[in-house]
Design brief:
With 156 residues, the chain is an alpha/beta fold. It contains five helices and seven strands.
Length: 156
């Protein structure tokens, strides 16, 4: 399913790397940035998430909660978060339901892997409406963070 700007964001409940449940519905009243990424510890994923880490004040100033989401286990994500000193939550979509709902799943990834999230970014406003959607087919590319920051600035 392709997500379109202006539609209601699919709800989800996932565990973060600290073993706490996070539900989109509970984030109402905050802007949300969801960053789906293929695999922890890979070079492009590390670069992408460290870029967000280094710019976290921009997202905090936009009243935006930032979440990285992958199909890695919460234990793998906890280690990745610790090693990269990430200052936002990583959510485990181990069952692949959330990435599927957001149209962000590869049918087959490298080395024949199935169930890997496409690198993608979604900005969800305080009312739960999609305001930015970018799903990348090429896992070597990163989202357009300038465009994401622009949308968040408009949302305030």
């Amino acid at each position: 399913m392709k997500i379109k700007i202006g539609q209601k964001a699919p709800d989800f409940t996932l565990f973060d790397s600290e073993k706490k449940e996070v539900s989109l519905v509970e984030l109402k009243g905050k802007n949300v940035l969801l960053l789906f990424f293929p695999l922890a510890f890979t070079s492009v994923c590390t670069k992408e998430l460290c870029e967000v880490r280094d710019s976290i004040s921009i997202y905090n100033n936009a009243n935006a909660a930032v979440f990285g989401i992958s199909s890695d286990s919460l234990y793998t994500l906890a280690k990745f978060k610790q090693e990269q000193n990430l200052n936002f939550s990583l959510l485990s979509d181990y069952n692949k339901e959330t990435a599927t709902a957001y149209g962000s799943m590869y049918e087959t990834f490298g080395f024949g892997m199935k169930g890997v999230a496409k690198r993608s970014a979604f900005v969800i406003d305080k009312e739960g409406i999609i305001r930015y959607a970018e799903v990348l087919e090429n896992a070597g590319e990163v989202p357009d963070f300038a465009a994401i920051r622009e949308v968040l600035a408009e949302l305030g």
